[in-house]
Specification:
Shape: elongated
Largest sheet: 5 strands, mixed
Oligomer: single chain
CATH architecture of the largest domain: 3-Layer(aba) Sandwich
Structural class: alpha/beta
Helix content: 40-55%
Number of domains: 2
Order of helices and strands: EEHEEHHEHEHEHHEHEHHHEHEHHHHH
Strand content: 5-15%
Length: 380
């Protein structure tokens, strides 16, 4: 499998969009590990993939906010190779899980304008339900010539690499700490930073239910968000890569506040936030899109239905799902002997950690999907 691996700016007629494009996260990982059977080429008559990493919300990288489409920036050389079946365009947005309703239409319309076959496009995203959404889109419109949509859980391996560099507690460390500090250990932790509507709503619900003093709850930007004065110049990667073992040690469960929550966002995005407690042998509750736990189970992880109610993951109504999570926190706070309750989770917590390590050291299923698509496209 060949990737076009050259001066990044040469992919585009206008190579001055650093706020829109970057190296593909998947290709960056392949480069780090130097995995076979991937090959990096500069100029060749062989078939190849053009990998492009895109940044933030599709409004940013599609160009709809700037008036210049991503596809319009492709050089003539690559457009010709794509048109004639010698290349695949891989758009990698796996850092995010955004799914605006217009995105699939944008892809098909943009390809049609350049007379490119839909099959030449592979779209990588962190959205675990992208394939189902795209199948519904095609079915509703009678589309037979399709692009390829793949979910890539980028942050699983990224958090593995980062947690290896710092102390993270194993199960025995949890028990030692919690036994020695049992009076200080709180029911849960819920770190929230970037202001989003569902996070404000959840923070207010915790406050209304007298839960804020039952856990480690942070939302430093809440007040300035309400006033419309948010200015965050901090490198976001500092937050993405940081693991907080002290949060896990000082609490019994982590509330993972994902970027997308509401039904209309059409996203189930298991970001770095859920792999942090997994790396720290900690149980978790996901404040995310409906089906977040289901997506994790597909990756081999176990959830905690034996210890608290996880039916929230199947509740379509956003407000009812959020209230169900609040009810779970109230239940956990009410448990008298939390230490024994936590200790009984040892097998599941160990399984999740072992699965996390195993998956991080193997080629991701998304790699294999891209590889298979490459073979089918050029040799099928």
């Amino acid at each position: 499998m060949n990737f076009m691996f050259e001066n990044f700016g040469e992919f585009f007629n206008i190579p001055t969009h650093p706020h829109r494009f970057r190296m593909s996260p998947m290709v960056s990982r392949i480069t780090r590990f130097n995995s076979d059977p991937f090959k990096y080429i500069h100029h060749t008559d062989e078939n190849y993939i053009i990998p492009i990493g895109v940044i933030e919300h599709p409004l940013n990288w599609c160009g709809l906010s700037e008036g210049v489409s991503l596809f319009e920036l492709l050089t003539d050389e690559y457009v010709i190779d794509l048109r004639e079946g010698r290349a695949i365009l891989l758009i990698d947005n796996s850092h995010e899980g955004y799914q605006p309703k217009w995105l699939f239409h944008y892809f098909h319309e943009s390809l049609a304008k350049l007379n490119l076959p839909p099959q030449c496009l592979v779209y990588l995203t962190g959205n675990a339900i992208v394939e189902d959404l795209y199948e519904d889109f095609c079915k509703d419109r009678g589309i037979k010539d399709k692009i390829k949509c793949i979910c890539y859980a980028l942050f699983e391996e990224e958090i593995f690499c980062n947690h290896e560099k710092v102390f993270t507690p194993d199960f025995n460390e949890h028990m030692r700490y919690k036994k020695s500090n049992w009076k200080k250990v709180l029911a849960f932790n819920c770190p929230q930073r970037k202001p989003r509507p569902h996070r404000r709503e959840f923070f207010d619900l915790m406050q209304d239910n007298n839960l804020l003093d039952k856990g480690l709850c942070s939302f430093p930007e809440r007040e300035v968000w309400i006033k419309g004065e948010v200015h965050d110049d901090t490198n976001p990667h500092n937050y993405v890569s940081r693991v907080h073992p002290e949060y896990a040690l000082q609490t019994y469960v982590t509330v993972v506040s994902e970027p997308q929550y509401y039904k209309h966002e059409l996203a189930v995005f298991n970001s770095e936030k859920v792999f942090k407690p997994i790396s720290c042998f900690h149980p978790f509750i996901v404040l995310g899109g409906m089906g977040s736990l289901k997506a994790l189970k597909k990756r081999g992880y176990k959830s905690f239905s034996n210890w608290f109610d996880e039916s929230y993951d199947e509740i379509e109504d956003d407000k009812k799902r959020m209230q169900a999570i609040i009810d779970v926190l109230k239940y956990i706070d009410s448990i008298d002997n939390k230490l024994d309750w936590f200790e009984s989770m040892k097998e599941t917590l160990t399984h999740n950690y072992d699965n996390f390590v195993k998956r991080s050291l193997e080629p991701d299923v998304a790699f294999l999907q891209v590889e298979q698509y490459y073979e089918d496209y050029f040799n099928g």
